[in-house]
# Entry
Amino acid sequence: MTRRSLPLSQVYRLLEPGPVVLVTTAGPERPDVMAMSWHNMMEFEPPLVGCVISGRNLTFDLLQAAGECVIHIPGGALARQVVKAWVRPSRRPPQTLHHRGRGSFMVAGEVIRLRSGKK
# Structure
């Protein structure tokens, strides 16, 4: 098996598996939408999402004031749009857009099922 060295500055590209999502919040003057790719499922039922939103970002202030937000999961077709979003319920699985760093994205969507040890 041949291997090559990977610069440490690129390791995060291998570890960031989550799709780009749109976090929406609302303030007294206008709604706010922020693209985010630093998030993780913390619990499955009920769903609990952990995310990183910089304190230097307007979204942080609005989220802190409102105490709630909405997380939208855009599909790959919106990569060059992010104006409106729709879901086609008949399309399974969705093709999600994943940020790989430095302007690089990946479209995912293949689902594989493996037998788990749980019954």
Notes: Residues 8-108 form a domain with the Pnp Oxidase; Chain A fold (CATH 2.30.110.10). The chain has a mean pLDDT of 77. DSSP finds two helices and seven strands in the chain. Strands lie at 21-26, 31-36, 39-43, 48-51, 70-72, 96-101, 104-108.
